[in-house]
Amino acid sequence: MVFTFQADSEVDSYMIVRPNAAHPTSSPDFFAAICAEVDNLSADLGTISLEIHDNPELQYKEFHAHKVVTEYLARQPGWTVTPSAYGIATAFVAVFDSTREGAVVSFNAEYDALAGIGHACGHNLIAVMSVAGALATAKVMKDEGIAGKVMLFGTPAEEGGGGGKIKLLKAGAYNNVDISLIAHPGISPDAALVRTAAYFAFKVEYFRKEAHAAARPWEGINALDALITAYNAISVLRQQTEPGDIIQGMITNGGLRPNIIHAYSAGRFVVRSSSRARVEVLRKRVFACFEAGATATGAELKLTPGGSYADHVPNHALGRSYQKYFNRLGAGIVEGDLDILRSSTSASTDQGDISYAIPSIQPSCWIRSEDHTGKQLGGPHTPDFEKAVRTEEAHGLAMRVAKALAATAVDVLTRPELLAEVRREFDEMKVVDELAGGAEY
C-alpha cells in the first residue's frame, strides 16, 4: 500500500510555515526544523494511517495496529519500544531519552475502532498525529542537544468505555511525566482548549417473583414495573437537571412473555455532565430513581458500575503554546475564553482522567466531511466520517496538528518558565476540583 501526495494538492496549502509570524517565545525558534521533520515522516505515516483505517479492530484487540506502529517505531534511531506494555496486550510505550535531566513530555496514540462503522472515530489519524509529534520532538532534541525525555504511549480501548489510558495510569505508566498531548479530529472548528464531559455508566437489574399475568397476577412482584417506574422517574428528573446534564438509557431485558409477571428486568444507563463533580451529584439523583422503582414495587435492585471517564480539563498554558504555533501554519484558532467556550463537547474520553493526573491538552482538528456540493455530512461516529478520515486532505490536516503538538512539547522542554506556569495552573485546578467534591469513580 502506497500513500502519496500531489505537489499541487490542496493539502500543501496547510503545510505553509510563515517565517515572518511573531514567535510566541523569546527562546530559539525550532519550528522550521519541526515542520521539516513532520513533512519528512508524512508519507510513511500516511501509509500507517491507511493500514490502521482499513483494518479496524475493537478495544483490546488492536493487534494489527499495535504491530504496525511498534515495528515502525522500533526502526527509528534512539527509540526504545516496549510492546504489550504493563500487561496490556495492545498497549505500548516508546521512549526517546536524551540521557540528560529535563522535562518529560508525552503523547498518546489511539488506534481502536467502533463496532460496525470502523474508524468513524478517526483514531487512525490520532495515531499518526501523536507518532509524528513524538518523532519530530525527538529529532529536534537530538539535533539541538535539548535535555529531557519524550514518551509515546499506545493507548488501546478508548471507545466503549474500555479506558486503556486509565489502566496505564493506574499501572504507573505516567509516573514522572510532566505533560500529556493528544488531538482529535472532528467537524467542529479547530480549537486548542477542548473540554469534554464526564460520564458514568452502569447496569441496572431488578429481581422478584413470577406469576401468571392473567390468572393470579397478585402473587407476583413485577421486576419490569420497577424498571419502568424508574425510567419514568428519570424522565421527570430531566426537567430539574442543570444544563449539560445528560441521562441516557436502554432496556436490555423486559421479561420473557407478555402473560408473565416478570421476575427479572435489566437495563444499561449513562449519566454525563460537565465535570466529574457534577456527574457525582447527578449519579446520586439518578440512583434514587432506581431505588424508587424498587420501593414502589417491592422488587430487589442491583446496580453494577460500568466504565467512567472524567471530563477533560485543558491546561490553558499548554493551549496558548499550541494555539500560537498552530496559527503560524495558517489556521485561525481564537484566543482565550472564546476558544474554550466554543470547543466544549458532551462527548467523553479517557484522556479526561489523564488531565486530572498531569497537565493535558486535546486540541480538536477540523476534517472535511462534506459532499461534492459542500453540504455538511456526519461527524465522528458516523459512516460519513469513517470515509472522511481516509482522505489525503485529512492526513495533511493531521500532519499540521502534529507540527503544533511537537512545537508545544519542545516549548516545554526548552522553557522552564512555561513548565512552571503549566504546573501552577494544574495545581490550582486540582484545588478547585477538591473543593467541588470531585473524586475518582
UniProtKB/TrEMBL annotation:
Q: Which GO MF terms does the UniProt record name?
A: dipeptidase activity
Query: What Pfam families does the database record attribute to this sequence?
Result: Peptidase_M20
Q: Which domain of life is it from?
A: Eukaryota
Q: Which PANTHER family match?
A: PEPTIDASE M20 (PTHR30575), PEPTIDASE M20 DOMAIN-CONTAINING PROTEIN 2 (PTHR30575:SF4)
Similarity comment text for this entry: Belongs to the peptidase M20A family.
The protein's name in its UniProt record: Peptidase M20 domain-containing protein 2
| Highest classification ranks of the organism | Eukaryota, Fungi, Dikarya, Ascomycota, Pezizomycotina
